Amino acid sequence: MALDEWLFDQVRREKMPSAVLRLYTWEPPGITIGFNQAYERAIDQTKITSPVTVVRRITGGRAIYHESSEITFSFSASLPSFGSVPPSLTEANSLMSEMLKDIFSQLGIDSRWQKRPQVSRSNSALKSPACFQSVAKYELTAGGAKIAGVAQRKIGSFIIHQGSLKLNGMSHFPAIGQEAMKPVAEADGSAGYSLDELIDCFLAIFAKNLRLKFRRFSPSQQHLTEIGEKIALLTKNPLEKRRFG
C-alpha cells in the first residue's frame, strides 16, 4: 500500500511519467479496508484467530483479505491517459473494466463487467460485507462469481485504480465475512495463474488501449528514502485516512 501511494503521489506531482503500472502478490497475508470504511463495521475482531496486519487503502471499496494466491495491481495515471477530454471518471472506469475483460480473455476466462451494483451475497452479521461478497459497478465476474474487485481514488485530473484478482481462488475469512471461492477454471489445466503470466497480459493490453510504452522502474536512493518514510508512516498509523495536499 505504501508503494502504491507513493507512486500515485509521484504521478500526481508530475515527477514521473503520466502512467505507472504495478503488479504484486502478498506475503504474509493482510487485510485492507476501504478509505471510508469504519474498522469496527468492517472487521469482527472476535473472529481473528491469529495476528494479521490491517491497513486502510487510499481507494474506496470494502474489506479484502489478501493472500499469496491473489494477484494485485495498481495503476496511477492522469485521466487524459484514458483518452477522455475533458477528463471523465466514468470513461476511465469503463475502459479499465474493458481492459481487464480483455486480459482475462487472453487467459481463457470468459468474464463480464458489472453495469450496476449487485446486492450483497454475504450472510455475515457485519454491517460492511467483504469486497468479494458483493459486486460493485465496473467489477468483473466469471461463472457467476466475482473474480476482480477494483477501487479508485481521483484527485484533480489524476486517478489511481487498485485491483484484487482472485483467479486462483479465495480462502474463507469470517472476520470480514469473506467466503471461500474455488479457482477459476483454467483453459490449459495448469496449476494456477502466475504473476509473470499476468504481467505479460497487462503490459500488452494496457499498451494497446492506452497507447503507452512501458519500461521497468529503477528507484533512486532518494526514491528509496521517500518510500521508506511512507512505509514507516503506514506502519505507525495504518488506519489513518491519508489525504493528499
What does this structure look like?
By secondary structure, the chain is an alpha+beta fold. The protein has a single domain, classed as Bira Bifunctional Protein, Domain 2 (BirA Bifunctional Protein, domain 2). It is built from five helices and nine strands; from the N terminus they run αββαβββαββββαα. The protein has helices at 2-12, 39-42, 89-106, 195-210, 221-236, and strands at residues 19-24, 30-33, 53-56, 64-66, 71-78, 112-113, 140-142, 145-155, 158-165. The strands form two sheets. Strands 1-5-9-8-7-6 form a six-stranded antiparallel sheet, sandwiched between helices. Strand 2 (30-33), helix 2 and strand 3 form a beta-alpha-beta unit. The two termini are 18 Å apart.
Number of helices: 5
Indicate the proportion of strand residues: 15-25%
What can be said about the biggest beta sheet?
6 strands, antiparallel
What is the radius of gyration?
17 Å
Mean pLDDT: 89
CATH superfamily: Bira Bifunctional Protein, Domain 2
What is the top-level CATH class? Alpha Beta
